[in-house]
Amino acid sequence: MTDEPPRFDDAFRERLHALFAWRRDVRRFRADPVPEALLGQCLAEAALSPSVGNSQPWRFVRVRDLERRAAVVASFARCNAAAAAGYEAERAALYRRLKLEGLREAPEHLAVFCDEATECGHGLGRATMPEMLRYSVVGAVQSFWLSARARGLGVGWVSILEPEALAAALDLPEAWRLVAYLCVGFPQEEHADPELVRHGWQARDPRGASFTER
């Protein structure tokens, strides 16, 4: 006896395509709180993600303490200033005009770590590619993101941060490595196109929708 697999029709596939297209990185959030049950549903679906050797190495940390959040904002400010200094002329000016985070506005902050000391999975599948643990966490982040978007929530991934400083500020186990810092909340505005495309930073690269044959 086996479980009957679900049947996905054309209507479902069209809506799934719309979900991918509207996933979008959000940087502008409303102040409305995220209901606990809604956040819990998204985390539960993220936990269904595949992982190397069934290691399930993702560790979601909800950051609510204001002092810890302030440390994250300070880290972003340092990193953002250094990044801006790496550009010149018009590109530098454009960079400074971009809104690259929603740290002050987002009602929820989630730091997502990879537990590189996890005993789950017994090391299967990562002897030659230990980075598969972190790739598994990235998959869980994407699952969380799609689940959130399907429920009307927006997610913004902030990468302009100092991983070591964040781990210290959050007082976490040494073996946990930062993979993502997510701002979560209801979007202030909705756009089908990526913000960096809309504001002239970078157009879509057609190579992303193709593959190479050998």
UniProtKB/TrEMBL annotation:
What are the record keywords, sorted? Oxidoreductase
Q: Which domain of life is it from?
A: Bacteria
Any single GO molecular-function term of the entry would be: 5,6-dimethylbenzimidazole synthase activity
Domain Nitroreductase span(s) in chain numbering: 21-185
Q: Which Pfam families match?
A: Nitroreductase (PF00881)
The record's annotation in SUPFAM superfamilies points to: FMN-dependent nitroreductase-like
The kind of enzyme this is, by top-level EC class, is oxidoreductase
InterPro entries in the cross-refs: BluB, Nitroreductase, Nitroreductase-like, Nitroreductase/BluB
Q: Look up the EC number in the record and give it.
A: 1.13.11.79
Protein name (record):
5,6-dimethylbenzimidazole synthase
